[in-house]
Amino acid sequence: MRFLQTADWHLGRKLHGFDLQAEQEAAFVQIEKIALQENVDGIIIAGDIYDRSMPAEQTVDLANQMLQRLNLTDHLPLYAIAGNHDSASRLATGTPWFSSTNFYLHTQLAEAFEPIELETVQIFLLPYFEPFAAQQYFADDSLLHLDQAMAAVINKIKQQFDPTKKHLLVGHFFAAGSSQTASETRLTVGGLAPVPIDLLTDFDYVALGHLHNKDALQTNKIRYSGSPLKFSLSEVRQQKGVFLLDTETQQTKFYPIKPLHDLHDLQNEFAELTNPSFYQSQPRKDFFGITLTDQKPIPNVLARLREIYPKIVALQRTADYSELFEQSQSTKKITQQNPLQLLDDFYQQVANEQLSAAQIKWAQKALQNIREEAKS
């Protein structure tokens, strides 16, 4: 059987204040197209459909439209789980009738022990859970950490194995390390503690969500699909897309997704960034993280750059302007100066202009409040 593997849609996510709905809709269209062209037997969504546990009404409508289109219009079976960003209770709304349309959405730990039986494959949908949920389910207070809880969970899942079928696990967690390596310091990634990889070796394939990089884990049997979009500057150089899984051959094929507006990083001097011969060659409708290499402050730099690059998500500088200020004040006895004068001097160093009357008034009020608090 052939499945499309995706995860971490994070519907409702913003990129440093910029709405990403258009980008998410464009990525969804490509996911749908790949699934239909490849005539897959179903789509796996390994958690984090939403970006937050209390999504906005508009975001819920968007998720419903996407899932209904895949399941009810395209007649594609869906195998989905709740991730750590999702609200299990919100996702679970309507699940009693989902199975009648081959939409399987598991949001509670107990559901992981009820495999979905296909002709040649058993699919185990293991939603994100906290160790406390395992303590309750197994009535075992010794399951204090996720690796301990996961060992109990996997052991129970394996008891449901049909030896005549392939066994596919869908999960949302951080897989790393070995259960044979004990550590007093428990590493976390994205807020989740690691699940030892050797706990997963009895599955024919493990489709994971949580890490946004498809190359986060280099193993043929256990894969992250990664997110369909770049959600931070740390993901600038990651290739986004989905996997196509063939359970008979256990082979996967990666299909890239072309972003509606990509995310880039630029590092250059202000003069070069604002030079038409440079910026006219840039995809200026895309998102940018910019690092200025100038050694002197530039007045109104963000506003001026946004006239050329409207979607600047971050602005950094290689120069430490605080050091420049300290050097310029090296012959002055700073501690003896008036705080407002110090502020004005610093502002002139950074912005190359004096404080306005309104700014001075605000600073005086703030200074007065600080003095009153110090007396009380």
TrEMBL record:
Residues 1-213 form the Calcineurin-like phosphoesterase domain. GO terms for molecular function: 3'-5' exonuclease activity; endonuclease activity. The keyword Aminoacyl-tRNA synthetase does not apply. Pfam families: Metallophos, SbcD_C. Keywords: DNA recombination, DNA replication, Endonuclease, Exonuclease, Hydrolase, Nuclease. Residues 260-350 form the Nuclease SbcCD subunit D C-terminal domain. It comes from the Bacteria. One of its GO terms (biological process) is DNA recombination. Belongs to the SbcD family. SbcCD cleaves DNA hairpin structures. These structures can inhibit DNA replication and are intermediates in certain DNA recombination reactions. The complex acts as a 3'->5' double strand exonuclease that can open hairpins. It also has a 5' single-strand endonuclease activity. Heterodimer of SbcC and SbcD. NCBIfam families: sbcd. This is Nuclease SbcCD subunit D. It comes from Liquorilactobacillus nagelii.
